[in-house]
Records
---
Amino acid sequence: MKIEQTKDFELIAKLNKPVHDLHCSLYPKYFRKYNFEEVKELFKQLMKNRDFIFLIVKEKKEALGYAWIEIRHYHENVFNKEYQSIYVHQLSIVPSKKNKGFGTFLMEEIYRFAQQQAIDLVELDYWVDNKIAKEFYKKHNFIKYREFVYKQLNGVSPPPR
């Protein structure tokens, strides 16, 4: 296994499909069907942001997954102290390689990257119905410290739980 940074937005767009399809299946009301050209263009634009880093995990030169991370800068204000974190936007492994250690390998690289940047906090969020993500991050000792809640107005039922 090998991990490298990439600016290959087309590759990231291809590797994004499994995680996007999962989100679509869990929350079809909120997620559009995967469109490679649109996703490719989005990642092309995102890669212009110097705080966004894209990592790919490879085996025998084949890309098997990716992580999209961000160096977040929280500025001091009257409420909060200044700090930084590494925020994991997405982590996705191709379906045929799930449960083979590739996700853990990516997370360990994210931890190393954070330490190299002298950042001691890694943050992320995931959709409540994504049980795979919940168990994966639990295995990595992530702790829930904040909850995001919502209220659906106009009588429309909320996303399934």
---
Amino acid sequence: MTMLSFSPNQWAVLALVLVLGWLLGLLSRSGGAKWRHLYEQERSDHQATIADRDARIAAANARIAELERTAPAIGAGTAGAIAAAARGGVDDLTRIHGIDRNEEVRLNEEGYARFRDIARMSDGDEATLEGRMGYEPGRIARENWRGQAAALAEGRAPEYRQA
């Protein structure tokens, strides 16, 4: 094995590099106070962000509770139908002969979720609903939806169940 040997010039360069590295380290040293201050600032910013988020969530929950208190039993659109179903405010309209699951969803979206809603329709309401749903005129009367719904609302008429 050979030993490493340095010339005096190489020793001088090595010493100079070590001294320059030590000086550069001292100059770039920012101290613990700077990093501690940045950490504390970041932590307080994070806590403020969490507090803001919690306040916004509380405000949103309060708004949701307010809307639930003031909302009608059934609203228009799918959101109203889903909300009514979640509250148990819908009947199984597929028990009425002539209504399948897709039509039931569409009826819920139109605001008809209970048997009594269908039973209370007027002739004008029937015509409007047939137009909105794309049915041929007279289908609701021909299939006697109102009569079936009235019977089902009273808890009778098992013969109207679909097979």
---
Amino acid sequence: MKKYYEFKEISPRHFYSRTASEHDIHVDAGKEIGGGDTAARPFEYLMTGLAGCSGIDVSMILEKMKVEYEEFNIKIDADRRDEDPGIFETIHMVYEFKGDNLPIDKLERAVKLSQEKYCGAAAIFKASAKLTYEIKVIN
């Protein structure tokens, strides 16, 4: 599936994009390197994309399994190399679910399916980083 993306510089190191799905995104650098610090950094969007990709998968899978939860959050702890290019070396995802009588086996299955079969972002990151995950149920 080919999509066209266009990025326009608004001010030094601040870019605007209208995505293929017709949503607005701004990317900016920190003031320490001449940006305006008005928007998220590119690598923050990468982690947001990973969490969003997997989160949508897990949510859809659990809905098909008829698993209801009160709350679902994903936290990511990631480390990048110090030298350029500063790619991610390790990424650890924590899937947190809140609810009563949640079936842990179904939560584990949904997350595993996302991580191993459906989430393209996870597959991309696994090519260059150690990606691990865990599941927590919070009552």
---
Amino acid sequence: MPATPRRDLAAMIVPLGRALTAAELPLLHDHGLTMWAYSVLLRLDDRPLRSQAALAEAIGADKTRIIDVLADLEERGLISRTSDPADRRVRLLALTPEGHRVRTAAQSAIQSREDRLLARHLTPAQRTTFLEALATLSTLPPDTLTTP
């Protein structure tokens, strides 16, 4: 056993995540977005998502929580909600061109800030390794994290 045990992953990641989220909020505000709105825009890619419930599950939100977020995004022309021709009860959610523009601008501002942060504290090799490891871990299915 090492002389000084390393900290648990959650003990390192959770405070880092909170700090990064706090740093993103002013940038999102500059683009007229809340964190939930940004999460919605990030999840909607080039193909429509079939149902608000599927979107809520994908971003880890209660489906009732995002109703107002979706209404606001639609009112602002950032997303569209249209009936599915195959099932009129289902609403297809999609980014509009303006939604894509806003998402890209907000994400660019956030990632520029992140790049400056990483450059101040990590060597180029450390940045590459960190981002690769984080990308790998973030794509693991949740049940693989809870299986002993």
